[in-house]
Design a protein that fits this description.
mainly alpha; Cytochrome Bc1 Complex, Chain D, domain 2; about 40% helix; about 5% strand; binds heme C
């Protein structure tokens, strides 16, 4: 049923140009994440395990809205570091492309064929579901209708300078 995969992908891409968020089904994505967890955990900063997983790849908690290749303590390939340096901040849309073919994605973004990622896995279908699941566990990935008001961050220089991975301003 290869054609239906491509048809689905095409439909996703065409139907949701701007609002990639919400495209996938996070519940399905949670099941699909079984394919990822051999290498990736999803663990909140307070140590709560959303999904227990391996350490071959970086912790994917908060990956939506995070700069590529910047999870603390993980030793990334040059490919992912270059990708981050090129300005990649993971969006749901970009993640769907990345997990479909990591090396191709980096090559296209950075323009260097010699760069190889350490992620040897490619997800051929249900990318949007997995990414929707990741977005659910990404505090930085604010849904469009509650997009952060710039006023929040403007309340003080300290807030603006604080590392973004941690607490949203609203505690
Ligand atoms: C065989 C192990 C393996 C599997 C399976 C795997 N990954 Fe990865 N993944 C990695 C490694 C290793 C890296 C780091 C890549 C690098 O440094 O080049 C990575 C990097 C990533 C990144 C970039 C994170 C960042 O901090 O920039 C994302 C996103 C990601 N993987 C998502 C997934 C998803 C979603 C799945 C399941 C569909 C998956 N991976 C399956 C090993 C894996």
């Amino acid at each position: 049923m290869k054609t239906s995969i491509y048809a689905t992908l095409a439909a996703i891409t065409l139907a949701l140009p701007a609002a990639a968020q919400g495209a996938g089904d996070p519940a399905k994505g949670e099941k699909e994440f079984r394919k990822c967890k051999a290498c990736h955990m999803i663990q909140a900063p307070d140590g709560t395990d959303v999904v227990k997983g391996g350490k071959t790849g970086p912790n994917l908690y908060g990956v939506v809205g995070r700069k590529a290749g910047t999870e603390e303590g993980f030793k990334y390939s040059d490919a992912l570091i270059k990708l981050g340096e090129a300005g990649e901040v993971w969006t749901t849309e970009d993640l769907e492309h990345y997990i479909t073919n990591p090396n191709k994605y980096v090559e296209e973004k950075v323009g260097d064929k010699s760069l190889k990622t350490k992620m040897t896995f490619k997800l051929a279908k249900n990318q949007a579901d997995v990414v929707a699941f990741l977005a659910q566990h990404s505090p930085e990935a604010v849904p469009a209708d509650t997009a952060p008001a710039p006023a929040d961050a403007a309340s003080g220089d300290a807030a603006a300078a604080a590392p973004t991975a941690e607490a949203p301003a609203a505690n």
